[in-house]
């Protein structure tokens, strides 16, 4: 995507709009996972919703969303529906909400296959294969279970099987492990990693949890108040952040240890797109902020090979002590 903009209707109505995604650019090559991280209000979920074509009513968009040569922002609603579930699929945070409690898992996983007119026995065979691929044990039997008969981890596996049913090339995962306990979380993350490595899926992983992103993503995009603060190879972004916000984010996570200090909470409250400070949106919370930061919005620029940051003083940030992420 290039310069993606999403405006949502504001509380005053009429011409009042809030820019919730403001000029976001990144690529998702095949067999690569891009982690989208940031606090709530950072625009990461809205960016994923723009990719899948599920923006709220009244949303206006700008920039480009290129998929296989086509600008999805110019595609008709019918074309977006045709792509959804087939070329681009999404898995959500709460597997229970994504499943219909009155239908068997087999029926729900097989729905997209039935709609494409495949014979019944072929649909059944494929459903069992998909459940097996997603790590559901004894899939031939468990396929006939209802969602309430599955544990939280199994339900998320069923949702992943549903997402894979349309043979997507791009999988969007919005906080896919947040509702799960830690052991199940790491199993689901291993599954997502194998879908990328073995099946060549491109993936966008939305998470507020830096450890999740460190586990799966090769590339990381850090968002703040609807804008990209930093992006680049995950190892570089986590080990050597070039943006003070990324650095604060890394230092706020207990599993992320610096050489000099234990985890420290992020200072201040997050800026929101509706209440975005002037200049650099991070300036009220930034320990390095100077007068220039209050008036001049920093552009996203390449600070090191492949590593981009929106900070007037990114070189200074990079030259200070390295931050080490144990999970990366
Ligand atoms: Fe901090 Fe200024 Fe960089 Fe913004 S531009 S992150 S306020 S130093």
TrEMBL record:
GO molecular function, one term: ATP binding
SMART domains: AAA
Keyword Acyltransferase: no
Compartments it resides in: Cell membrane
Protein name: ABC transporter ATP-binding protein
Domain ABC transporter: 6-250
CDD domains given in the database record: ABC_NikE_OppD_transporters
Keyword terms: ATP-binding, Cell membrane, Membrane, Nucleotide-binding, Transport
Membrane topology qualifier: Peripheral membrane protein
Keyword Cell membrane: yes
Family affiliation: Belongs to the ABC transporter superfamily.
